[in-house]
Amino acid sequence: MDTPWRLPGAVELRDGPVLLRRHVPEDAAGVLEQCRDPDTVRFTTVPHPYSPEHAQGFLRHVREQWAAGECAALAVELEGRFAGTLDLRRTAGGWAGIGYGLAPWARGRGAMTRAARSALAWGFDELGVRGVHWEAVVGNEASWRVARTCGFRREGEVRGLLVHRGERLDGWIGSLLPGELVRAPR
Ligand SMILES: CC(C)(COP(=O)(O)OP(=O)(O)OC[C@H]1O[C@@H](n2cnc3c(N)ncnc32)[C@H](O)[C@@H]1OP(=O)(O)O)[C@@H](O)C(=O)NCCC(=O)NCCS
Fold first, then answer.
1. Residue 1 CA: distances (Å) to CA of 19, 121, 180
2. Residue 110 needs a FRET pair 20 to 30 A away by CA distance; which of 24, 143, 181, 186 works?
3. Which ligand 1 atom minimizes the distance to the CA of 134?
4. Which of 69, 119, 80 is nearest to 98 (CA)?
5. What are the b/e assignments for 82-115, b being 16+ CB within 10 Å?
6. Ligand 1: does its nearest atom lie under 6 Å from the Cβ of 143?
7. Residue 69 and residue 85: Cα distance in Å, rounded?
8. 3-state secondary structure of 77
């Protein structure tokens, strides 16, 4: 049950203008742009300030974690341009955690909602994931809306749930089981 995932060499999941695929070295500039955005700094644990070396290190880490079967991080392309990353991280007991972020130019167009639905369907159907946890800093409405549209249940607000650059922040937590994924637009 707790063996690493056997992740395929290549993955392409498309939904309209959104394509999920493995990262390539050319994504470094897009990663840098995304991780220097103030909302990304506020709501995620990216290093701050973020340097080109951080982007290279991230892409290296993504490749290593994929090979190890520990984390399926997928690049999100919108209209053919790198827009961000979504990852499914393996956790104990056949479950996973989900994380996502987009560069500001790509937000507010439903791109992450499409990406998350595709990735979750792939995780449940192809990787055999039994359930997924979602966590976000309290007040991250955009993240919650994506999760809610996919079918996540928000089950709690936990004091000090998230460690954020050395500080504990209150977090929302939610979960999704395979039969609950909303696969088509409501
Ligand atoms: C979270 C994030 C990936 C959402 O991506 P997105 O493609 O903009 O999401 P969508 O366009 O699919 O919008 C999802 C919903 O959030 C709403 N929304 C977008 N920005 C919002 C904001 N700042 N406040 C409230 N609602 C917002 C949209 O209107 C939409 O609502 P609907 O589903 O009711 O129509 C993006 O905002 C982001 O990268 N934020 C910074 C990083 C981050 O917070 N990552 C998540 C960490 S848990």
1. 30, 20, 22
2. 24
3. 48
4. 119
5. bbbbbbbbbeeeeebebbbbbbeebbeebbbbbb
6. yes
7. 17
8. strand
Cβ atoms of residues 93 and 2 within 8 Å: yes
Name which residue sits closest to atom 21 of ligand 1, judged by CA.
142
Report the C-alpha gap between 53 and 159 in whole angstroms: 33
Domains and CATH numbers, the chain: 12-180 (3.40.630.30)
For residue 185, say if its preceding peptide bond is cis, omega within 30 degrees of 0. Answer: no
> Can you tell me the distance from the alpha carbon of 89 to that of 92, in angstroms, rounded to the nearest whole number?
10
CA distance 73 to 98: 10
Q: Is the CB of 141 under 6 A from ligand 1?
A: yes
Q: Is the CB of 7 inside a 6 Å radius of any atom of ligand 1?
A: no
For residue 58, which amino acid is it? F
Query: What's the predicted TM-score (pTM) here?
Result: 0.96
Question: pLDDT digits over 38-92, tens only?
Answer: 999 999 999 999 999 999 999 999 999 999 999 999 999 999 999 999 999 999 9
